[in-house]
């Protein structure tokens, strides 16, 4: 009974991790760390993208409500937590006002400056939305191979253990094979959520960027009409 209990302890999950070789323990530790960081970034991205979508919808309601653009710009400039379309609008209108105050200016040059300012704001928003997504992609693509390395190392240990016994039994190779399988499972456990989250948030980011670019084009068209009407007047 005592011998059987000892074998069961060695084959328990905690026992396998404690009794694993140093290399396999390092593999497991790296996968656990990657999994913890992945979940932290997954939750962070969910909050950032969710807030960005909500902010976009609220700003579009204000923008298309018929409010004077100068008044909207003053209100947004006083807000310290602006993001997304608000930053794009702020950058474009600020550049429009700056160039207009210089006196008579070619309408094409004015609109080109406004569009350039909005492109910079768009790039910053894209960078903000994509933050930490490359890490999720890296975890999703490399974790299975890291786990596979632990698996190969565990199987190598099982064959080495077989070389030192006269009679091969399951009890001799079971611990090494089990720790190898745990490394594989941990690699998949780290990779699967990271891949799902990366694909999901990449798609959401692309959709938000399309909405931002559409807004930038619409805002440019509004400014183009205003400049044309001013020149015609």
Automatic annotation (TrEMBL):
InterPro entries: ExbB/TolQ_transport, MotA_ExbB_proton_chnl, Tol-Pal_TolQ. Residues 85-213 form the MotA/TolQ/ExbB proton channel domain. Keywords: Cell cycle, Cell division, Cell inner membrane, Cell membrane, Membrane, Transmembrane, Transmembrane helix. One of its GO terms (biological process) is protein import. The chain crosses the membrane at residues 12-43, 133-156, 176-198. GO terms for cellular component: plasma membrane. Signal peptide: none annotated. Its main location: membrane. It comes from the Bacteria. Part of the Tol-Pal system, which plays a role in outer membrane invagination during cell division and is important for maintaining outer membrane integrity. The Tol-Pal system is composed of five core proteins: the inner membrane proteins TolA, TolQ and TolR, the periplasmic protein TolB and the outer membrane protein Pal. They form a network linking the inner and outer membranes and the peptidoglycan layer. This is Tol-Pal system protein TolQ. It comes from Oceanospirillum linum.
């Amino acid at each position: 009974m005592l011998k059987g209990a000892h074998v069961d302890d060695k084959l328990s999950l905690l026992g396998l991790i404690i009794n694993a070789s140093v290399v396999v323990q390092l593999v497991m530790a790296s996968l656990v760390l990657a999994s913890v960081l992945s979940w932290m970034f997954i939750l962070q991205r969910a909050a950032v993208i969710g807030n960005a979508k909500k902010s976009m919808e609220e700003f579009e309601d204000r923008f298309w409500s018929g409010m004077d653009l100068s008044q909207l710009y003053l209100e947004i400039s006083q807000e310290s937590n602006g993001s997304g379309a608000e930053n794009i609008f702020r950058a474009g209108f600020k550049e429009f006002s700056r160039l207009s105050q210089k006196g008579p200016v070619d309408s094409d040059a004015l609109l080109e400056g406004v569009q350039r300012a909005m492109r910079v704001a768009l790039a910053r928003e894209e960078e903000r939305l994509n933050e930490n997504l490359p890490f999720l992609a890296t975890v999703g693509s490399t974790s299975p191979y890291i786990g596979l390395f632990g698996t190969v190392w565990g199987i190598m240990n099982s064959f080495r253990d077989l070389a030192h016994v006269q009679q091969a039994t399951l009890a001799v190779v079971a611990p090494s094979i089990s720790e190898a399988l745990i490394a594989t499972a941990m690699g998949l456990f780290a990779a699967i959520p990271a891949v799902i989250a990366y694909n999901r948030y990449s798609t959401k980011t692309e959709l938000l960027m399309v909405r931002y670019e559409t807004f930038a084009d619409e805002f440019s068209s509004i400014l183009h009409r205003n400049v044309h009407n001013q020149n015609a007047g």
